[in-house]
Amino acid sequence: MAATDPLPDPDRLEGAPHPRETRVLFGHADQQAEFLRSFASGRLHHAWMLTGPKGVGKATLAWCLAKFLLATPDDDGGMFAAPPPDTLDIPPENPVARRLLQGAEPRHFLLRRGPNDKETALSQVISVDEVRKMKSFFALSAADGGRRTAIIDSLDEMNIAAANALLKLLEEPPENVTLFLIAHQPARLLPTIRSRCRELRLTPLGPRDLADALTQAGGDVAPEDRTALAELSGGSVGEAFRLTNLDGLKLYAALIRLFATLPRLDRPQALAVADMASARGASEIFDLLVTLIDLFLARLARYGATRLVPLEAAPGETQLLQRLAPHPAAARAWADLAQSLSARARRGKAVNLDPAALLMDMLLKVDETAGSLALR
Q1: What pLDDT does residue 117 have?
Q2: In 10 A of CB 1, how many CB atoms?
Q3: CA–CA separation, 107 and 112 (whole Å)
Q4: Cα–Cα–Cα angle for 67, 69, 70, nearest 5°?
Q5: Cβ contacts of residue 31 below 8 Å, gap of 6+?
C-alpha cells in the first residue's frame, strides 16, 4: 500500500458496503423487539453487547439502534405524547440518518482499530489510546444536551489495556450515553465487561433472509443456491459474500465429487483441486478450500455422532456422509482429523509452504482416514 493510499475501513467487508450504509436489516426481529421494549419502558440500559457469529448482522443492527436513538425525540411524558415506536426504521432523509451515513454525526463515536505507529497500515488491535479518545469525546457536553451513542467494533480486537479502560467507562457510564459493543466470541472477554452489559444474541440467518441481505450487499445468489449457501456460510452474510465472490459453491461441489472417490482417492482429480491454490494471487482460494475441507469434516463428524442428515450443500453430499460416517467411532475419527488438519494448515501457511503441496497433503490425510475406517 502506498503511503498516500487511504487505509481501509477495519469494520467493512472488502467489496461490500459499510454497515452504516445498509438500508434494510434482515432477520433478528426478536432482538429488535427486545430493544424497543426496553426503550419504551424508560429504563434503557447504558451498554448493549451484540453477540453471535461473524457476519450475521451485528454491526448493521448496532448502526440501526444508534440511528434510532439519535433520531427519536425524548418522550416528555405529557398526555398528548406519541405512542412508543414499534419499529427501528428511520427515514433515510432524516438529518441524523444523513449525518451518520456521512460519518458526520457529532453525537456519535465509532471505536475501531486505528492506524499503526507509522500510519502505514491498520493496527492489529484496538489500543488504549483509541478508548481514551472515546472517553474524551464523552467528557465534552453534547451540543443539545440529548442522547449520545458509540459503537465499538469489535471487543474481540481490544488489547488488555484497552479492555481495562473500557471497563472503567462501563462502571461509571456518562449520562445520556448508550454504548453498542460488538463481540464475536464473548466467552473470551473479561467477565466484568460482560456483566455490565445487556446482551442481544444474534443467530444465523435463514436461507431467505441471507439471500436478501447478500443481494442488498451487492452479492448475487440464484434461488436454487439459497439452501446450499446458508448451509456453507452458517447463516453469515460475510461468509456468504466470500463464498459467492470466490465461487465457493462450485469449489465445495468439486470437493464432494473428489471425496466420492474415497477411500481410493482419485489422484488426478485431487491434483486438479490442489492446483487451484497454486496460481499467483490465489491465497484467498487456498484459505477458502481449507475452510471448506474443514467444514466437510465437521459435517461428517456431526452426522456420524447424531445421525441427523443436514440439508444438502452439493449434489451427492448426503449419500457421501452416510457412507463415510456410519457410526460414532467414525465421527470421532473425522473430528480428530479436522482438528489435526486445521493446525497443519496454520503451521504450513506460517512457514510459507507451497499451497498446492499443503492441500494435496491434507487430501491424502483424508484418504488415509477413510481407508482406515473402511477396514474396521
Answers
A1: 83
A2: 10
A3: 17
A4: 65
A5: 61, 200, 201, 202
Q: What is the DSSP string of 262-329?
A: TTS--HHHHHHHHHTTTSTT-HHHHHHHHHHHHHHHHHHHHHHHH-PPPPPSSTTHHHHHHHH--SHH
What global pTM score does this model have?
Answer: 0.87
* Tens digits of residue pLDDT in 284-343: 999 999 999 999 999 999 999 999 999 999 999 999 999 999 999 999 999 999 999 999
pLDDT tens readout for residues 83-111: 788 899 999 999 999 999 999 999 999 99
Contact criterion met (CB below 8 Å) for 21 and 174: no
Name the amino acid, one letter, at 169.
L
CATH 3.40.50.300 fits 19-201, yes or no: yes
Structure-block grid coordinates of residue 20? 452504516
Query: How far, in Å, are 6, 12, 117, 356 from residue 3 at the CA level?
Result: 8, 21, 13, 33
Rounded distance, CA 318 to CA 309, Å?
7
